[in-house]
Amino acid sequence: MEILLGALLSLLASPILSWAQTPPAGAPPFSINLGGGQELSVSIQILLLLTVLSLAPALLIMVTSFTRIVVVLSFLRQAMGTPQSPPNQVLISLALFLTFFVMSPVWNKINAEALQPYLDQKITQAEALERGVNPIRDFMLKQVREKDLSLFVEMAKLPPLNSPSQVPTYVLIPSFMISELRTAFQIGFLVYLPFIVIDFVVASILMAMGMMMIPPMLIALPFKLILFVLSDGWYLLIESLVKSFG
Hints:
By secondary structure, this protein is mainly alpha-helical. It has helices spanning about 1-10, 40-65, 65-80, 90-120, 125-145, 145-155, 170-210, 215-230, 235-245, and strands at about 35, 40. A two-stranded antiparallel ribbon has the order 1-2. Strand 1 (about 35) and strand 2 form a beta hairpin. Helix 4 packs across helix 5 (about 125-145) and helix 7 (about 170-210) crosses helix 8. About 25% of the residues are buried.
């Protein structure tokens, strides 16, 4: 897991085509050593690289801020009563660009501490992979709840850990995802509250007027939209989301 994650992070921090092209002059070639002086053939290396690329979307979701952002945006769409607007393409694109924005310090650190020294032949491939994993682990450790981390450490039947650096990556990732989902649901609850109040007021008024045949959602939708626009809802939501990772 650490090797796959490190390879992905190094890949995201550099142009994708650089893996398929001849390395720059003086740069060490990409190779995988099995120990004992044996190295994998080029075809096997390409196969492993394609495997890492196929896992890239899942790893991107698991170890970045994407999960929290996309869940909160989905809650917003449901709370407003517009399940098809914004469309899924717009929602996912916004979540991805916000993820790149939030994670940019991590990518820059990976590029500066792992990828560039490796291309300059200052460190070995194993050291580059280890350095590439550390920044993303630090990010996850800042966001994960101790309770969630303890749960997976206990289920993995690991001995007592003395420091966060001793937490295995396969334990840290699910702990981080559970913590992200909890935080996203907390933010989603707060997003829902003002829209629920509007639904309640509109439904009460319609019942008092005897207009029970008119769907309250149909009447409440314009008021939800104008409330969201007048309060500059996108600004407030995005600001809160990005700052929640501080």
